[in-house]
Amino acid sequence: MSGAVTETYAAALQHDIADLSEEATRVGVVRRPTGWFGALVDENRPELGPPESLLSETKDRQEALRRQGLCDEEAHNAAWAETDFETRYRDYLATDEAAGDALADLAERVRAGESVALVCFEGDSKRCHRRILDDVVRERAASPAE
User: Fold this and answer.
1) Start and end of every DUF488 domain (predicted)?
2) Res. 35 pLDDT band, cuts 50 70 90
3) Would you say the pTM of this structure is higher than 0.85?
4) Residue boundaries of the structural domains of the chain
5) What is the CB neighbour count within 10 angstroms for residue 91?
6) Which of 4, 19, 28, 43 is the most core-located residue (most Cβ within 10 A)?
7) pLDDT band at 145 (very low <50, low <70, confident <90, very high)
8) Which pLDDT value is given to residue 1?
9) Kind of pairing, strands 43-44 and 5-9?
10) DSSP-H helix ranges across 8-96
């Protein structure tokens, strides 16, 4: 019996528009959670958030692009491309010990039948690490236990 992996964002939970099963464990994957974020999730795994250096570099690039006239969404998505965010985040997940332990834990829980919903801040119109993480957790959960 295997559980499911889904993903959503904080505002969707706040406005009750997230399409999640009632039994899904809401797992925050936020490096810098705000005070109210904890009320939306059952647990937060900050080690699955992007590393601080990548977050800061991407945010700085996004701000520079906004100053050049791009809207917030365009600046965010362009900054992702310019900082090679996806490749660097995947490398982080593959090499960081704490992230690896958290991934192994989530994969085992899904293999055991638990459904998890990965939650962070970015809405559906912005590129987001939780979608990458969703793929990685699914791949690991489908593999035999290590």
Assistant:
1) 21-140
2) confident
3) yes
4) 5-142
5) 13
6) 28
7) low
8) 58
9) unpaired
10) 10-14, 52-67, 72-82, 85-95
Residue 40 to residue 64: CA distance in whole angstroms: 31
Residue type at position 57: E
Contact yes or no for 8/20 (Cβ under 8 A): yes
Burial class (CB in 10 A: 0-12, 13-18, 19+), 15: exposed
Indicate the residue type of 143.
S
- In angstroms, the CA 101 to CA 98 distance is 5
Would you mind telling me the total number of residues written for the chain in this entry?
146
* Amino acid present at 27: V
Average pLDDT score over the chain: 93
83, two tokens: 């900082």
| Strand 25-28 to 116-120 pairing | parallel
Quick one: 68 exposed, middle or buried, by C-beta within 10 A (0-12, 13-18, 19+)? exposed
